[in-house]
Fold this sequence. Notes:
With 677 residues, this protein is α+β, with helices and mostly antiparallel strands. Helices cover 52% and strands 8% of the residues. Strand 6 (388-394) and strand 7 (399-407) form a beta hairpin. Helix 12 crosses helix 13. Bound molecules: zinc ion. Zinc ion binds at residues 4, 6, 466, 470, 495, 498.
Amino acid sequence: MTARILMAVTGVVACASVTLAQIPDDSPVRAALQRAETAVIAIEAIPGRKRTFENTIVALDDMYGRLEIDTNMIRFMPYVSTDPDERDAGERAEQDVADWLIDLEKREPLYDAVRAYAERASGLTATQQRLLDHTLRDFRRAGMSLSPEKRAELTTIHKTLNKLSIEFEKNIRQDETTVPLTREELAGMPDEYFENPSLRQSGDLYMVDVSYPQFNPIMEYCQIEQTRHKMWVAYKRRAGTGNVRVIEQIIELRAEAADLLGYDHPADYEIEIKMARNADTVIEFYRKLRPLVRKKALRDLEELVAAKRRHTGDRDAKIYAWDTNFYLNRIKKEKYAVDSKLVRQYFPLDAVLDGLFSITQNLYGLEYRDVTARARSQGRPLWHADARLYEVWDKATGEMLGEFYLDMHPRPNKYGHAAQWGLVQHKVWPDGSVSKPVAALVCNFAEPTADRPSLMSHDEVETFFHEFGHCLHTILSESTYYRFSGTSVERDFVEAPSQMFENWVWDADVLATFARHYETGKPLPDDLLDGMIRARHLGSGMAAERQFFYGLYDLKCHLDPDGDIDSTQLAWDLWDPAGENVELYDPVPETYFQSAFGHLTGYQAGYYGYQWSLVYACDMFQRFKELGMLSPDAGRYYRDKILSRGGTTDGMNLVRDYLGREPTMDAYLKHLGLDAE
Length: 677
Ligand SMILES: [Zn+2]
């Protein structure tokens, strides 16, 4: 499993008491902020006796929805644009909008207006009540119950945090880590690796960077351990020690803010609004789970060590982090007859895309139309020749539901992982008009070469299905309010629809619909497919422990009341066999993975949510499978019960309602390969 990220620029809004004059004159989003400001002033000016749900609470939701529509494209550009000026303007816009929101949520007259309405509120529907409660909750969490002095202090902290978070993410995106390697040092790499047009050469040396298409194959195929080691260490030093200082400053400021707001530590502040509710529940989750998974991890390690000893002839050989994928690959080949290089040949990107499209169109009653050619004339920007735009139509109603962008290949300065952006959220406006959602999938799959299409590894196919799961969560939303649209669910539930959908790439009937050899067009041979499925749990214990490490690391960063941590030592302590011993590898000195651990901004004290959501994803998948993985009825049911509802009710209610019973961990344990325990 790779670290995936969902960037929802939605829902949980940051927060301000500014007047028009405080919006910077040269801000690239000045007009949008002025428009928002005007809307806020109008809400505040309503006389007490005329205050209604619509003109106060809904009007505020309208303001947020409008501001997002007015600013989202410019704020998205730092992640995808090739133009440095456009990226700079986007970062500036991000900062100005966030600063304005920080002030907004601490703005006394607006809070008074919302409270004045809350005091007389009556006859609200459950969703309306939820919108009111969440609005009040946002104000409380932004510091409205503090004295003006303390609130001013909090404002300064929040604005500094905002600036530092932008810097942290920018340093990751701008990282240019490159490792010069000779052809000999790259022994074992498949021929197509060297055909990658992005792989630069300098004399006899290959200048290998840490983008996925250049880094991942080395971990899988390179025969030279020193090369894998060198690349792995370079990868774990991305964004440099400068970013270690930035993240430590961020963690300290988060602790100061949590303290001002009366929480024990930032983790409790962050988790309060999630399914888990507090840090103790998450700690307990890991405490129960880790011993179960450890047994499987030990078996995994044993298998890997044996494979390495066979391969190297060294009877004392140990397994290091940079060995895992290489030896998993060898075991797959030796024990399951699965050659991952061969598997790729059955997953050309276009066939995967067609397959994914057919499956989801059929399941959810949709039709996708490629409208790239007329995107610009419809006012939809295309930031690069790789960007494509699709419309999503509902077959039953003949209605256009939304649009999504695909941007599939890496390039310099582009966001380096795979993620879904919700650019526009579903929203019903007071006049009855509807904003249709717009999503963007930003991925980094290998580019096609002159004589070969882009070939995807099975892991990449899984990643693509994962992100598309987020995309449909955004597009199929039917929420009236911006606040609850699409992926605006609890952050420890948001990865459930995406991770559930990963299961489709592990089903023989599903794969039979699209896996085709890129040259011969022949379907994936049965024995190869059978081997892939049998090898699914290979290394699953160690992979789960890797996820526990990330989750516990992120959590522990946010448990110190003063935020006074040595972020490198903290990783070491978790890893150390004499310490927490979360993983079975020896720790590696001189590395500081946290400098490029992008989840620390946006998912702070929330990385655990991947495993937490996975429990529900697995349980929901069981139900989906019973109903039929390719059945339009099953799709309709899931669309109605989960996807269309967004955050209009708690995640736990959604799950119960979909399952028709209380959720359990059984399916999750089976997913980890532990059902035999
Ligand atoms: Zn995700």
